[in-house]
Amino acid sequence: MLKDRRILLGITGGIAAYKAAELSRRLVEAGAEVQVVMTRAACAFISPMTLQAVSGRAVRSELMDPEAEAGMGHIELARWPDAVLVAPASAHFLARVAHGLADDLLTTLCLATDKPMFLAPAMNRLMWTNPATQSNVSRLRERGIRLLGPGVGAQACGETGVGRMLGPLELIQGLAGTLTGDHVLEGNRVLVTAGPTREPLDPVRFMTNRSSGKMGFAVAQAAAAMGAQVTLVSGPVALDTPANVERIDVETAAEMQAAVVPRAGDAHIFIATAAVSDYRPLVAGDRKIKKSADRLQLELVRNPDILAEVAALPSGPFCVGFAAETHDLEAYARAKLTAKGLDMIAANAVGNGLAFDRDQNTLHLFWPGGDEILPTAAKTELASVLMRRVAERFHAQN
User: What angle separates helix 20-29 from helix 168-179, to the nearest 10 degrees?
Assistant: First the structure.
């Protein structure tokens, strides 16, 4: 993914610095050479020795380093990489770079480099939404600096909201998509659904399924890395929003339908990864159902078929469905492909510890006149291959 690429990994002071060791390791696994540069504050959160061990190179932190080339470490480092990635990028660091300050090695080399720069913000939700930070973010984007994230979720301070640093794989995907120039979906709008839906039985209980949303989020991430404008409609999941993806959270199948169908007409590609509940209770109780009788009978009604509805739209998008099956995988997938008039379907076996809530998956792709098996791999890797196949088929039809 990043074979032979030189990545300068900057680390600033913040609790998310602990993720830098995993990020550095993943970058090396992706084939990159990694040079770590740490601020003094970063060294209070994670040891330079740890980063040296996983990156395989001595960590740099001093601006005036007598052991550096001609004693001018910032110029040496500014010339070395193919890209600069700062993760985490604290609010203070964003402010310093936005205003052109150069008071340590990392900020100075950021001024001295002409290589692509990526910043992965990580801070408290109120710090992120503060007008001062947003002003700095706008200034950075105007200068062509790319921001990866932040994500949404629980924070070290105990609060929940926007401000989490994206995970290592998400950052690598965003980085690789730009550096490899694999923008085969540039200028196209991609609509993705992910995760489960929940159908309420009463104010306390609901019907749902085992979907974690990991595959759908990986697909959205891969599409964004290929240059697409991505909208992700997600059921209830515990995942960070991928970089450069618009996210819409829903709960029920009806809410997902209401979010998807009006947007599908403007989409070029629709990928229905979500595990939408096939049925919902005819009536959801407005009070908690009490335990009384030995048996409880529920009447269920069918939910809308969102994928079929989108596929039937006049001049609708290129439609990709997913088929999760416990048996007769190929037969069910081919039947679904034909019955719903899809352009492609990705089938995967589920049950007995397969696929659901796992980091790996196996896919069998079908399209009119052809098929391909994508062997077991990490869902992030599968998503990249899947999106390349989608892009190929999409462009072949347009």
Answer: 50
Residue type, 318: F
In the numeric block, the tokens 């960590």 are attached to 59
Per-residue pLDDT tens digits for 339-398: 999 999 999 887 665 556 667 788 999 999 999 998 887 787 788 889 989 999 999 988
The pLDDT assigned to 7 comes to 94
Q: In angstroms, rounded to a whole number, what is the distance separating the alpha carbons of residues 236 and 179?
A: 32
Taken in order of first residue, the domains within the chain and their CATH numbers are: 6-179 (3.40.50.1950), 189-397 (3.40.50.10300)
Helix axes 91-98, 131-142, angle to 10 degrees: 50
What Cα–Cα distance (Å) separates residue 120 from each residue in 15, 115, 248? 13, 16, 21
Q: How far is C-alpha 359 from the chain's CA centre? A: 13
Q: Which two tokens stand for residue 295?
A: 């048996």
Q: Is 110 a catalytic residue?
A: no
Helix, strand, coil share of the chain (percent; to 5): 35, 25, 40
C-alpha to C-alpha distance for 270 and 193, rounded to whole angstroms:
8
Among residues 43, 110, 157, 319, the one annotated as catalytic is: 157
